[in-house]
Design goal:
Layout lengths: L9 E3 L2 E5 L2 H12 L4 H15 L12 E5 L4 E5 L11 H6 L18 H12 L4 H14 L1 E2 L2 H9 L1 H6 L2 H7 L11 E2 L2 H15 L6 H14 L1 H12 L2 E2 L5 E2 L5 H6 L4 E2 L2 E5 L2 E5 L7 H10 L4 H4 L4 H21 L10 H4 L2 H8 L58 E5 L4 E4 L49 E5 L2 E7 L6 H13 L5 H5 L5 E2 L15 E5 L4 H9 L3 E6 L7 E6 L4 E6 L7 E4 L1
Length: about 600
């Protein structure tokens, strides 16, 4: 394939940072210039992204994260997904006539994970204080930043909602009762106040050590004034959800106070000499690894990444892996997810035999040794995630207008020592839930991903993590740092990033070329998001694909529904080149705000 790149590869020797917004990337670069490591820089970018991309992520959301410690020569996952309210159960849903958890309002809210996940990362792997990494976001919230097209469009789309229903959101995002113009300086003083409360708590521990200060800052959020204000607001101010029902929130102070982000072992497979690390099945991350184990049985380089044979093989492998995600993944703290089988080469070889020359239109999870579970036998044309058997299609459209969820964002960092971070912040979207008055951000809606069927994994239960789509990736070689990457994009994340990874590892492109190659995604498996529709056999393809390639895919039975501009992805990656002492970074070619910096 001729190079589709429109940007140069960025290279440096001291550090490289990437994020989905240039102001956040600048903050990460600033922290590294001040002597911070990759973890410090990533945290600074994370808090800036919460502020400048409130339609993509926020302090009320979540941030699955992978960290490679150069000192320990080891990769770790940090559980950046909060748990569900203790009071929110399948029985509660039955009693309150909830057939499918909506994507709006308070009902799908989990404990916000953003703040404590960064706090754990800083305390465990960073070098700076909370105040130091929060300073760039504090300045942007106080002094303001230029309103840009995408955020302006979201606020304009939701202006009526903010005026009539989510009035606390209007107090922040409709200053002086109007939509801010593009280029106008936008401020969020309530967001700045939240950071100041945490920074002051850290200051109050002066002399007790950096880690104690960071813990004091997080405790204000989860055991202090911020948690109290959130709980008071959602218990006194109802929110309209996608079913047309006004509900109060179920989260309590104890739900906040008892939750803590955890450092965990990642799930890992070896592919062509690279150890590829993902968060466990409280995300969809292992589906990336399952696809790798399937694709390892083919000579992809011989196929060529523009051939119909490669595209068809990738698509069919994705269908098999995502069917397993649908049927077997859940919070491993509460659900039994047998990765010893799912990630094994023997299982992959068995599954590979199902791939034929024609496209499959069936949902085909694997037999892990005791038969296919009963809940997985429905035809994929039916919504096999109907929770209680009473779901009505008419409930799919929200009375709030466009109920499309927000997207996600991404930040990565690698420093000269080889510390690596890949983080995927999301949730807490201003489109989906009202801003908490006085705090400047809304709660998340990730609980919409729970099933309401107690017999299957990922079923709603008290203090459980829903299976998020958020899925950063790290790769190491012989225990040494190699690659950090990720992207926004819901169910597409572990398809687009895998295409990038194969472009780089199997097809010999440089980092920027690999990011800018063709991208495509299946819509075959039921969506992770409300109202969880599926489209058997459907593949959405890149507008840059030749017409003859698209036609050959159709002849094989693939249903080509959309031809999209995938060159606008916010995918980003950084490579540590230990041989030459350099670090390479890139972002997909044409996002309007994404940026990479290195020096």
């Amino acid at each position: 394939m001729p190079s589709l790149s429109k940007r140069p590869l960025v290279m440096g020797t001291r550090g490289v940072v990437t994020s989905a917004h240039y102001l956040a990337t600048a903050a990460g670069f600033r922290i590294m210039e001040q002597g911070g490591n990759a973890i410090d820089a990533a945290a600074a970018m994370g808090f800036c992204l919460n502020l400048v991309e409130p339609h993509q992520n926020g302090l009320g959301g979540e941030v699955p994260m992978l960290v490679y410690s150069a000192k320990e020569k080891k990769a770790y996952a940090i559980s950046g997904m909060g748990w569900s309210p203790k009071a929110f159960t399948v029985d509660w849903c039955r009693e309150n006539d909830v057939d499918l958890i909506p994507g709006d309002g308070y009902l799908p809210a989990c404990v916000p994970a953003m703040v404590d996940t960064w706090a754990v990362a800083l305390a465990r792997f960073g070098t700076m204080s909370f105040a130091q990494v929060a300073q760039p976001a504090m300045e942007l919230a106080t002094n303001g930043f230029p309103m840009y097209d995408q955020l302006h469009g979201i606020i304009a789309e939701k202006a009526q909602l903010y005026t009539d229903t989510y009035t606390s959101s209007g107090e922040v995002f409709l200053p002086n009762g109007r939509v801010p113009e593009v280029g106008e300086i936008f401020r969020n003083p309530d967001f700045a106040h939240v950071l100041e409360l945490m920074i002051q708590a850290e200051r109050d521990t002066k002399g007790k050590g950096r880690i104690t200060g960071i813990e004091a800052a997080r405790d204000v959020f989860y055991k202090g004034e911020i948690a109290e204000r959130i709980v008071d607001f959602i218990h006194s101010t109802p929110a309209l959800d996608a079913s047309g029902t006004e509900r109060f929130g179920l989260l309590t102070y104890d739900d906040f106070a008892e939750w803590h982000a955890a450092v965990e072992e990642p799930e890992t497979v070896n592919y062509h000499g690279l150890d590829v690390h993902k968060c466990s099945s409280w995300t969809q991350g292992p589906v990336f690894l399952q696809q790798l184990t399937l694709l390892e049985g083919y000579d992809l380089a011989a196929m060529g990444n523009t051939s119909v044979e490669y595209l068809h093989t990738f698509i069919e492998c994705a269908k098999l892996a995502f069917a397993d995600r649908e049927v077997y993944y859940g919070d491993p703290a509460l659900d039994n997810v047998p990765f010893d089988v799912l990630l094994s080469k023997d299982y992959a070889a068995q599954r590979r035999q199902l791939i034929k020359a024609e496209a499959s239109l069936e949902l085909r999870p694997g037999d892990l040794g005791s038969g296919i579970p009963e809940w997985a036998t429905f035809d994929v044309r039916e919504d096999n995630r109907r929770a209680l058997g009473r779901y009505e299609e008419s409930k799919a459209d929200s009375p709030l207008g466009n109920s499309q969820p927000g997207d996600t964002t991404q930040c990565n960092a690698i420093d000269r020592e080889g510390n690596m971070v890949a983080a995927t912040p999301s949730g807490g979207w201003i489109q989906s839930s009202p801003v908490i008055r006085g705090l400047g951000f809304p709660l998340g809606t990730r609980g919409q991903m729970f099933y309401l069927n107690n017999r299957r994994p990922n079923a709603l239960a008290p203090h459980k993590r829903p299976r998020a789509t958020l899925t950063p990736t790290l790769a190491t070689r012989d225990g040494e740092p190699y690659l950090a990457f990720g992207t926004p994009g819901g169910d597409g994340q572990d398809q687009w990033t895998l295409q990038f990874f194969l472009n780089y590892v199997d097809f010999g492109m440089n980092l920027q070329e690999a990011l800018d190659g063709w991208h495509f995604e299946i819509a075959h498996t039921p969506s992770s998001f409300y109202p969880r529709r599926s489209a058997p056999g459907v593949v959405n393809v890149d507008v840059r694909m030749p017409a003859e390639v698209i036609e050959e895919l159709r002849q094989r039975g693939h249903v080509i529904r959309n031809i999209l501009h995938y060159e606008g992805l916010k995918m980003a990656a950084i490579r540590f080149d230990g041989q030459h002492g350099t670090i390479h970074g890139g972002v997909a070619s044409s996002p309007t705000t994404a940026q990479v910096c290195g020096w």
